[in-house]
From TrEMBL:
It comes from Paenibacillus tianmuensis. Residues 91-120 form the HTH arsR-type domain. InterPro entries: ArsR-like_HTH, HTH_ArsR_DNA-bd_dom, WH-like_DNA-bd_sf, WH_DNA-bd_sf. Coiled coil: none annotated. GO terms for molecular function: DNA binding; DNA-binding transcription factor activity. Keywords: DNA-binding. Signal peptide: none annotated. This is Regulatory protein, arsR family.
Length: 130
């Protein structure tokens, strides 16, 4: 993880900060300002492939998933490839991707489109940075 953090740190200044954060977090966009005054990115592997996000006042901490495929056996597909292929294995996931192809959508919009249980949507909170 320290190698990943060092390589990401070396990229600071090569891209606008919001674009770099989006690349590091595999697609999460943090809107500068609007309640997100400071963004801290930290690598983690315990909850792969999920990113963990905490908000404290004007600061947001995003623990992004580090690709742990460095220890995959040579005769097996990497964990990253396996996760990507598995993510496309359900019809509802493909419907979500098609829906997102039309443009950015909030979690609530996706849930309504797919028709997932209302109980799941009650658990979601919109972060001021997303």
């Amino acid at each position: 993880m320290s190698e990943d953090a060092a390589s990401r740190r070396a990229r600071i200044g090569t891209l606008p900060s919001d674009t770099l954060a989006e690349q590091i977090t595999n697609g999460l966009y943090f809107e500068p300002g609007a309640g997100c005054e400071k963004l801290v990115l930290s690598p983690q592997y315990h909850f792969q492939p999920a990113n963990i996000i905490y908000t404290f006042g004007g600061s947001t901490v995003c623990q992004y998933a580090v690709d742990g495929s460095y220890d995959d056996p040579a005769d097996e597909p990497s964990r990253r490839l396996y996760r990507q292929l598995r993510s496309l294995s359900e019809k509802s996931r493909l419907r979500i991707l098609r829906y997102l192809n039309a443009g950015p959508r909030s979690f609530t919009e996706i849930v309504r489109y797919i028709g997932i249980s209302k109980g799941i949507t009650d658990l979601s909170r919109e972060s001021p940075c997303l």
